[in-house]
Amino acid sequence: MGFFQKLKERLGRSQDRLVHEIRRIVSRSPRLTAESAEELEACLLSADFGIPTTLKILQATRQAYESHGTAGGDWVEVAAETVFAELQRHQAPLVAHEGELKVISMVGVNGTGKTTTCAKLAHRLKEGGLKVQLAACDTFRAAAIDQIKVWSERIGVDLTSGAYGSDPASVAHDAISSAVSRQADYLLIDTAGRLHNKQNLMQELQKVHRVMDKRLPGAPHETLLVLDATTGMNALNQARQFNQTVPLSGLVITKLDGTSKAGMVVAIQQELGIPVKYIGVGEAVDDLQVFNAKEFAMAIFGLEGSR
Questions:
Q1: pLDDT digits (tens, 9 = 90+) for 25-44
Q2: Contact 276, 250 (CB under 8 A)
């Protein structure tokens, strides 16, 4: 199964409900009435597209109706094209190693799948022929160290870890030293999950990043926030807070296979301009995929990949 078909299948819960509502609303009238526009707005907001993107979609819809009386199926295409236009404005690939170690800090709240995502990204990079190392900087949760150890052995990459309760900044420092000496291409730092509204924990994350930069100027070269798609618009609040604490370079969206709130991806990019770099659409080690704005926009509205 190709990535687009897998994405469309896993987003089924989002797109089935959304497309069904859209077609039900627009099929009642050959023109966009005030009543149907209000219903469409409520439909889009319930999928967590956010107010700015919702209004842009409605504006595009009105223009389409006025120009050639758009029917239900065409309206879905208009919506998808509007979402794609929003998403593509902020696309950016993972920083290239270019012969020098690149340090990637993975951050997020508890329960987003951050540790698993860190390991999956390491696997993906290794499969691309790159030398990758992991660092277990979540020293507060003993199970996190055990979890990433299991992953490192499973995917065959080196791991730097410390004892439970040790200083995560010290572990990060040692991990960079190890990665430099072993001439690794990428070092992925699994930081501790932390509530975005706990100031002391966020300050500790800043300390970890300062230590990284002292050991290797410019590190971390990427800070990726892992977000759980099922949390809907709460993910936007998380992104705001983390971005104020440690400027984010990208997002990784997990659990897209279990949500009807996939519109939050668009809302976050629209407000913060932070690119989505990867998405998770399953539990398998290869279910972390590079984000494709066109395919995502089409999949969320149930359109075919050949369009």
A1: 877 766 778 888 899 899 89
A2: yes
- For residue 187, what is the enclosing H or E element? strand 186-191
Pairing of strands 276-280, 222-228: unpaired
Q: Could you tell me how far CA 128 lies from the centroid of its own chain?
A: 20
Distance of CA 247 to the CA centre of its chain: 15
Looking at the domain that runs over 102-290, which CATH code has it been given?
Answer: 3.40.50.300
pTM: 0.89
Q: For residue 192, what is the DSSP state?
A: P
The reported pLDDT for the residue numbered 193 is 83
- Compute the Cα dihedral for 278, 280, 281, 286 and give only its sign: positive
- Above 50 in pLDDT, residue 147? yes
CA angle 133, 137, 139 (to 5 degrees): 140
Pick among 1.10.1200.10, 3.40.30.10, 1.20.120.140, 1.20.1070.10: CATH of 3-88: 1.20.120.140
Q: Are the beta carbons of 180 and 216 closer than 8 angstroms?
A: yes
